[in-house]
Amino acid sequence: MRADLHHMTIEEAADAMSSGQLSSVELTESVLARVESVEDRYKAYITVDADGAMEQARRADEMRAGGRATAVTGVPVCIKDNIVTRGLRTTCASKLLEDFVPPFDATIIAKLRQAGAVIVGKTNLDEFAMGSSTENSGFFTSRNPWDVSRVPGGSSGGSAVAPAYGGCIFAIGEDTGGSIRQPASFCGIVGCKPTYGRVSRWGSVAMASSLDQIGPMCKTVRDAAIALRVIAGHEPKDATSSTRPVPDYLDGIEGGVEGLKIGYVPSLLDTEGIHPGVVEVTENARKAYEDLGAEIVNVELPNLKYSISTYYILCPSEVSANMARFDGIRYGVEHRGEDMWGTYARTRGLGFGQEVKRRIIIGAFALSAGYYDAYYQKAAKVRTLIARDFSEALDKCDAILMPVTPFPAFKIGEFIDNTLRLYLADIFTLGLNLAGLPGLCVPAGTVDNMPQGVQLVGRAYDEKILFQAGRAFERRSAHSLAHRLAASKEKLP
Amino acid sequence: MPSQAAVRKLSAGGRYERRLVGEKIMDISRELVLDLAALARIEMSADEAYRFCQDLSAILGYFADLNEVDTSDISPTARIAEAGAHLRDDTPGESLTAEDLLLIGGEKFDPNEMCFVCQGIFDSISRS
Question: What total number of domains does chain A contain?
Answer without folding.
Answer: 1
